[in-house]
What does this fold into?
Amino acid sequence: MPAPPYQAKTEFFGMFGHPVRIRVLELLQDAPKPVRDLLAEIDIEPSSLSQQLAIPRRSDIVTATRHGTAVVDAFAGGDVAELIRAACRILTEMRAEQNQLLAELRESLTEPA
It folds into this structure.
């Protein structure tokens, strides 16, 4: 029996649960990148990057293609890039609301009682 949809969604979103994986996905938004470029951008040990890349590769949202001696990673489809952009928009809105609340709280501290 297949997993219920909420279980599949939980596993999908769990795949984003590590800062290195998120950074890799951010870097892949613009274009496919060789692993050596990802290593240079993230400043992580090759074995750690390999472990973190294995998860989105296994989930088939990132593809790895060998070009000579280089392995190039890319999104398997454009929807993941849109999901990363949507997360950025959501976080930006949340932060703006928090900043507005903080400003209002600060203002209330300076007002006479």
User: Anything to note?
Assistant: The helical segments are 5-14, 19-28, 35-42, 46-58, 79-110. The mean pLDDT is 91. The longest strand covers residues 62-67. The chain has one domain: 5-110.
